[in-house]
Amino acid sequence: MTSGTGWFGQRSAGFWTVVSGIATVASLILGIVVMKNGGDNAAADQHVTVINPVSSATTEPAPTEPAPTTEAPEEIRFTISDQLTEGVEEETIYVSIEGSRVATLHATRDAPIVTENVDATTTGNYSYVLDAEILWLDSDGELQRSVASGRGSVYIEDGVRLDVYLHEESDGAITLSLEAAA
């Protein structure tokens, strides 16, 4: 090593700009992978997280004045509940909000009402998808399995309780909805 060049040696400003860009892309990809993997977790308390990546590729020295701090958004907590449908042996409802699974509600005759807490970062309208597996006894006492789904949007704010509703259509089809409790 020659004296005065430092451990990294001397590089042009363009070289460090390219290195900074590569690091930014890698961190964005890592953030997406972490977000996608977090959507398959079915733990009792889940988080819907909004990630706002910020990067700056510059070769100028950092400013000497501290940058103004921005407050992190205040987290809100809400609950999602399901009550076992009359005549049903058990039902499992998978709740996804904004494309991420946030709750799995499993109601049985032994535990007919289930509730999960969910955290979000902002009050507002969110899109949801509900998927369900419903087990019931037919008139011969045989266990039957039905699947149902539903999608829509719902307004979420701190403290709100959202209930899952099962609707039987005139053609026999079953649909689901997610609505704020009255």
Short description:
By secondary structure, this protein is mainly beta.
Radius of gyration: 25 Å
Order of the strands making up the biggest sheet:
1-5-2-8-9
Extract low-pLDDT stretches. 1-9, 23-59
Domain count: 1
Share of residues in helices: 10-25%
Number of helices: 1
Task: Give the helix/strand class.
Answer: mainly beta
Beta content: 35-45%
Mean pLDDT over the full residue set:
76
What is the CA-CA span between the terminal residues?
A: 73 Å
Secondary structure: number of strands: 9
Q: Estimate the global geometry from the Cα principal axes.
A: elongated
Can you give a write-up of this model?
The chain is mainly beta and about 180 residues long. It has one domain (about 10-180). About 15% of the residues lie in helices and about 45% in strands. The chain has 1 helix and 9 strands. The protein has a 5-stranded mixed β-sheet, with no helix packed on it. The termini are far apart. About 15% of the residues are buried. Mean pLDDT is about 75; it is low at about 1-10 and about 25-60.
